[in-house]
Amino acid sequence: MTEALLKIRDLSVHFRTGNGTAQVLRNVSLDLGRGRAVGVVGESGSGKSTLAAALLRLLPANLALLDGTIELDGRNLLDLPIAETVALRGTRFAMIFQDPMTALNPVFTIGNQLVELQRAKRPKASKTELLARATAMLGRVGIADPARRLTQYPHEFSGGMRQRVMIAAALLTDADLLIADEPTTALDPTIEAQIVALMRDLHDEIGGTLMLISHSLGLISELCDDVVVLYAGKLVESGPMADVFRTPLHPYTRALIACEIAADVERGDRLASIPGEVPDVTRLPPGCIFANRCPDVIPACLDAVPELREFGPDRRAACIRI
Amino acid sequence: MHPDLIEVQDAAVAFGRVTAVDAVSLAIRPGETVGLIGESGSGKSTLARLLVDLVRPNAGTVRFDGQDLATLDRAARRAYRRDAQMIFQDPVASLSPRMTIGRALAEPLAIHGIDRAQAWPGVLELLHRVGLPETILGKYPHQVSGGQARRVGIARALVLRPKLVVADEPTAGLDVSVQGDLVNLMTELQRDFGLTYLLVSHNLNVVRAMADRFAVMYLGRLIEVGPARRIFVAPAHPYTRALIAATPRLDPDRLQAPVPLAGEMPNPADLPPGCRFQTRCPLVDDHCRKVEPPETALTDGRMVRCHKPLVD
């Protein structure tokens, strides 16, 4: 195992809602290895976006509990004053959002925005110097005529081009950790393939640690070294990507993989699904969170929340039936 | 009965300077499923709306059961609107937030002057058929799950017992764990009710599980039409090939390294002369930049619009 850039231990995040306290993340522990691309996969309500929000301290006002530790360079980020954690954004952590239009400011030129975001780390650099870096980075993410494009506004870019700008922006910060939350979901398939190829090339070339949040197993298999599977707020399985997808241990991971439509599917073939519904995290059932949908469930599964156990190097799963 | 349930011939739909659907011809036989594939701005949703009378063509004809829609009188157009229904992409947005699911299901009956008391047992049967409990009737759209909302959308489209159902991205935004159920349900309903489907999607995997034929659109033109299986195994148009290659697939061994397209789509309001795919096509040459390829029939009966098809 590579050295960890970020160590997350027993992270729990709860929110107050009209229906009671929603326990959106419960005792999640994982390491983000330095230089690794880590995929966080989960369906709606898995808590995957809350995990990213907790790292960036972008949690909404109805936060009821933020517990556990997030360790960076030996310091627990959850102990730091809020101003210090905010200062980590754009210096140690950078984020690529699903919809770049919400992350870019519509009233400033791309050039202006790409210069300003570098100031935190390079307060003494001249504007010319920062513009030159921005121009070079835009060229690197595949935007033609970058010097001219820098004078344009976000609305003058297509969806795919805006996502390239976001990637350039994230890379310009020289952050240690790049968090990408569904970075290609809003894109058309052929544009998505271009962005995926770009992200893979840049990760191979530049290194850095990437946390990719996605519901798409395909996307994660194309980009990631490690994978973490979340279900209704619990980490149910983690390990090297190829191992997890080739030999999944947890029944939820197996069920999720079975739902992928095979390359040789034909008209009329019955597709797999996972019967039942995700439990309401304001009213947690006792025992394993997947028990009500699990094909392998036994009475003991309802007695206690299963511990995350080790299965070989870097492989972990939380299921008593393995 | 006419051999084609619906037939679009040389149809064009323009919005200002953009011709969203440009000289498109497509026929769908009864009981068939055609998967209409394309990306944003291809015109696929406009073509879908053309089939259910939500937009009218600026040029060309749409025939339903052999009848030119432009010639229908009011009563005949009403009947056609019962026969051709649409399942919308976002069922919560397509339903009124202040109307219960029960009222939303009864509304099409009222619009078409059908006696509610008489038709209601059929509606309840349909509700069960799509896998929804009767308790859902008193709920509002925002109170049901994403998967349930899709089922409501399907039930509502089937209340009038249509012949043609146009489904716009029926599984977009759904979790994979419920996507399969919905596809299976639509396949069963097609068999049970003898439906003809036009399935609009950018998700090739879902379309493959349902379609007999594919129709691929790019910037207002149909660029390839033919049997789904043939097209998937051996696409003839370079764009179709790129679209198939771009479909994300669970591939832990990374056996296939997809080669993405380069280049950008031209502005739909200012198309270049020649082929519309020229700015992104790996096979483009001078001829492609000057002359737009015509619709050409391949030996297996497929239609392709390309000077250099990948299949004879």
Helical content of chain B (DSSP H or I, runs of 4+): 25-40%
Largest sheet of chain B: 8 strands, mixed
What assembly state would you assign to the polypeptide chains in this entry?
heterodimer
- State Rg of chain B: 20 Å
- CATH class wording of chain B: Alpha Beta
Structural class of chain A: alpha/beta
Largest sheet of chain A: 8 strands, mixed
CATH architecture of the largest domain in chain A: 3-Layer(aba) Sandwich
- The tally of beta strands of chain A, per DSSP, is 12
CATH superfamily placement of the largest domain in chain A:
P-loop containing nucleotide triphosphate hydrolases
CATH superfamily membership of chain B: P-loop containing nucleotide triphosphate hydrolases
Q: Give the class of chain B from helix and strand content and strand pairing.
A: alpha/beta
Average pLDDT, all residues of chain A: 92
CATH topology of the largest domain in chain A: Rossmann fold
Mean pLDDT of chain B, nearest integer? Answer: 92
Helix-strand string of chain B: EEEHEEHEHHHHEHEHEEHHHEE
- CATH first level of the largest domain in chain A: which class? Alpha Beta
Low-confidence stretches of chain B: none
Taken as a percent bin, the fraction of beta residues of chain B is 15-25%
CATH T-level topology of chain B: Rossmann fold
How are the strands ordered across the major sheet of chain A?
6-7-8-3-9-10-12-11
Task: Show the helix and strand layout.
The complex is a heterodimer of chains A (322) and B (312).
Chain A: E1 4-17, E2 20-33, E3 37-41, H1 48-56, E4 63-72, E5 75-76, H2 82-88, E6 93-96, H3 100-103, H4 110-116, H5 127-140, H6 146-149, H7 159-172, E7 177-181, H8 189-206, E8 209-214, H9 217-223, E9 226-231, E10 234-240, H10 241-246, H11 251-258, E11 309-310, E12 316-317
Parallel strand pairs in A: 3-8, 3-9, 6-7, 7-8
Antiparallel strand pairs in A: 1-2, 1-4, 4-5, 9-10, 10-12, 11-12
Helix pairs in contact in A: 4-5, 5-7, 7-8
Chain B: E1 6-15, E2 18-28, E3 33-37, H1 44-51, E4 59-64, E5 67-68, H2 74-83, E6 84-87, H3 91-94, H4 101-111, H5 116-129, H6 146-158, E7 164-168, H7 176-193, E8 196-201, H8 204-208, E9 213-218, E10 221-227, H9 228-233, H10 238-246, H11 286-290, E11 296-297, E12 303-304
Parallel strand pairs in B: 3-8, 3-9, 6-7, 7-8
Antiparallel strand pairs in B: 1-2, 1-4, 4-5, 9-10, 10-12, 11-12
